[in-house]
TrEMBL record:
GO terms for molecular function: transferase activity. It comes from the Bacteria. The keyword rRNA-binding does not apply. It comes from Formivibrio citricus. Keywords: Membrane, Transferase, Transmembrane, Transmembrane helix. The chain crosses the membrane at residues 104-121, 130-147, 153-170, 182-210, 216-236, 248-268, 274-294, 306-323, 329-346, 358-379, 399-419, 431-452. This is 4-amino-4-deoxy-L-arabinose transferase. The keyword Membrane applies.
Length: 546
């Protein structure tokens, strides 16, 4: 995997050469995947909401109706929350925090996504290229946050990875592919939105236009997929309709199609330039490598190994361009076809392009690593005074210290230097070096800086301070003028009966918690105020209503 192989030799190879190191790929995936899954409180943009929904389920809430601060939370179907709640219930005896268990669920789904991309790359381009597809996906900058974030967004990535494999497999084993395809659609119906499910189905239904999929076996695969997915995928909407008709109506009208709104409130073309504004960094380096691969085979794009990922890529691009409210989490779907396309062309990169990628990655990640180590040493030693003082001011509740994270950072740095001492940077070697560098930076950020970041990003002190302030008082608390992340963090860490402005009975709550810059005496008697450590803008004020 670490050496360059010309395309002709790659196609003729029957058995893997002895120089291959499959253990290296596994180690790279583990070192990329595990850091950041445990050891810190929920962070923005989506963890506070996810963990609050999961906690409400475990506290006796209706598992069929996701609730955030007493309000239906319908941005995603509940499969991710169910998985995390089941794991939390099963492993409650271990004492592992619920938010850590939720991220472990993300790690499991992320591992499945990497597996699916690898299988798709192998099926389309050959066995060794499947490994390259995994390396390229791991090296994608935009995946770094969402691949370690407690959010249902990872389910879409996983489903589209396996859909790519199922569609590639359909020409060879149609019934097996049909079952896999149905499972991916089921994940989208129960874990994402109808919008993503319809996008996936559209990608599959358009393929018979091309001769490679215009056969009876593929039609059998499609039929099997619908039989597997639709009956089970409709169970949750039917449950909502029967047990919470008002929530079902809200979901169907406003949320069922995800970034396109709902059937009764469609949203189109709100930010047509969004994808272009993030693609250069979000999909680096798979985007330029995939572009080069397509240019190299531009006369053979009808070949199924290029046609399938290209169809899915164009569908996802159109999906994001015409969307009503695109986001980074939805752009994850963009990475899957790019990784598979790039895997087929990475070995054909010109020497200059491969060397440029290698040296750009090496210098960039080396500079970032030196900066992370230097700032961390300044924080530990208290010198130089100016830098150390600024870092302490940004996270005033952080207590400097060393632990297993420091040892991990040292080991990872040494391992990265060892990787750089390998052979010359052709094709996959350059891609592997990039992925290793990104893994190094992520590992250093987690190993050295996670406690410092957590001390300023967590809502734990706000929630616990609010809990102490209402000791001995009865009644619910209405949350006002705050976003869903703040509502989720306060609900999770306080454990109180807090209700968002749209929750039932919120207006009747005797207490109200307001996010504001300054206190407002017209709201009633001020009982408490608080904020996250180091936060000067986002403050919370608790009042008793007059």
């Amino acid at each position: 995997m670490l050496t360059y192989t010309p395309q002709a030799e790659r196609q003729q190879a029957v058995t893997p050469p002895q120089s291959e190191k499959p253990w290296f790929l596994l180690l790279l995936c583990v070192l990329w995947l595990l850091p950041g899954l445990v050891g810190h409180d929920p962070w923005k943009p989506a963890e506070n909401q996810s963990v609050a929904v999961i906690a409400r389920m475990l506290q006796g809430g209706d598992w069929g109706v996701p609730l955030l601060a007493g309000q239906p939370y319908l941005g995603f179907s509940p499969l991710y929350y169910w998985c995390a709640a089941l794991l939390g219930k099963t492993l409650a005896w271990t004492g592992i925090a619920l938010h850590d268990l939720a991220r472990i669920v993300t790690g499991i789904w992320m591992a499945l996504a990497l597996w699916g991309v690898g299988l798709a790359g192998r099926e389309l381009h050959g066995r060794r290229q499947g490994r390259v597809a995994v390396v390229l996906l791991v090296g994608s900058v935009g995946l770094l946050q969402w691949g370690h974030h407690a959010s249902p967004a990872v389910l879409g990535l996983t489903a589209f990875s396996w859909q790519m494999y199922a569609l590639a497999l359909a020409r060879r084993r149609p019934l097996h592919a049909g079952a896999l395809l149905g499972a991916t659609w089921l994940v989208l119906l129960l874990g994402a939105t109808w919008g993503e499910a319809l996008l996936a189905m559209a990608c599959a239904l358009v393929l018979p236009v091309f001769p490679a999929w215009r056969r009876s076996g593929y039609l059998a695969a499609l039929l099997a997929a619908f039989v597997v997915s639709l009956p089970l995928g409709l169970l949750w909407p039917l449950y909502l309709q029967q047990h919470a008709p008002a929530v079902f109506a809200d979901w169907l009208v406003s949320h069922s199609l995800g970034i396109y709104g709902g059937l009764g409130a469609l949203r189109f073309f709100h930010q047509p330039g969004y994808l272009y504004s993030i693609a250069a960094w979000f999909a680096f380096p798979v985007l330029p490598i995939a572009g080069w691969a397509l240019w190299q085979v531009r006369r053979n794009l009808g070949d199924s190994r290029w046609l399938l990922p290209l169809v899915q890529l164009l569908a996802v691009v159109a999906w994001l361009i015409f969307a009503g409210r695109p986001s980074d989490s939805q752009a994850l779907l963009f990475l899957v076809p790019l990784a598979v396309l790039a895997a087929g062309g990475v070995d054909d990169l010109r020497r200059g392009a491969a060397s440029s990628l290698f040296w750009f990655g090496t210098t960039t990640f080396a500079a970032i690593a030196v900066a992370l180590w230097g700032c961390w040493l300044a924080l530990m030693l208290g010198w130089p005074d100016g830098l150390a003082g600024q870092l302490r001011q940004l996270s005033p509740s952080y207590v400097p210290g060393m632990g297993i994270g420091t040892l991990f950072a040292v080991g990872l740095s040494v391992a990265w230097v060892r990787v750089l001492m390998g052979k010359r940077p052709f094709g996959r070697r350059a891609a592997t070096s990039w992925a290793c560098g990104l893994t190094l930076v992520w590992g250093l950020l987690v190993g050295l800086w996670q406690p410092w970041l957590d001390a300023s990003k967590s809502y734990r002190e706000v929630g616990q301070g609010l809990q102490e302030a209402v000791t001995g008082k009865t009644g619910c608390i209405e949350l006002m003028q705050m976003g869903s992340a703040q509502q989720g963090g306060i609900a999770y860490f306080s454990g109180l009966d807090v209700r968002g402005p749209d929750a039932a009975g919120a207006n009747a709550c005797p207490l109200v918690l307001v996010q504001s810059g300054i206190a407002d005496a017209t709201r009633g008697k001020l009982l408490w105020q608080g904020a996250r450590p180091g936060e000067s803008q986002e403050r919370f004020f608790l009042y008793r209503r007059p």
